[in-house]
Request: fold
Amino acid sequence: MREKRPALVITFATTTAAMAAERFSLAQGLPGRLIPVPREITAGCGLAWKAPPEEKERLLLAWEAGGLRWQEAVILCC
Amino acid sequence: MIQVNAVGDACPIPVVKTKNAIRELRGAGVVQTTVDNEIAVQNLTKMANQKGYGVRWEKLAPQRFAVTLTVGEGAQAPAPEEPECCAPAPAQGKRTVVAVASGTMGTGDAELGKALMKGFLYALSQTEPLPATILFYNGGAPLTCEGSASLEDLKSMEAQGVEILTCGTCLNFYGLTDRLRIGDVSNMYTIVEKLSQADQIIKP
Reply:
């Protein structure tokens, strides 16, 4: 298994919100990628955004400016 | 740069040879070790990460890998008496083959299907045991090519011994033959053999 490292994981209220975040981030050249929500956060299904922890402020500021909505941003090993 | 030839050597010999070369550097420098299996790549990468060395690897041929370790100023040289830890060989139990026949997972909305397939390959790379083989054909072929968002996950699995094969007919059809970025090209006979010899087939 791939070595787990601390990562910023951002969750969304809906799948469409997660996909909108991906579209926006790719267009803006923002760091990160869409992943299935890790089991450590929820047993349910869903998509989350994974990025390096040090990019949290830049990412969330850009998302806020772009009118995106998200639920929570946590750091965990995944 | 010191070149180390560890082709044909089983674990822990590639790691032992590489550590000896790093000690010979007597400081900062680069050691490049050539090996013939993914387990050795994994072991060398693990050792480099533990020691804080820079590490990258590339596949030179189907059974040939070059692992380049960069030792920085002040980095700790490995002690001669350090134990060598070998990564386990790929699971010897069920032979699982994953057949990816589409760029999307399931039918319905195309954008959602693409996001699900990316998520599937990511989750697959995080799961133990890893599959023995992943086959990509028809609409799945672009996933192993330039521009695919799943290349990082596929490279990680390949480095851990997963065989990645893409249908050559499909690459040709989609004009992607020169854009394959991971694994090897396969033909229908190999695809049939892999599927028929599998203990378990997963088709996302």
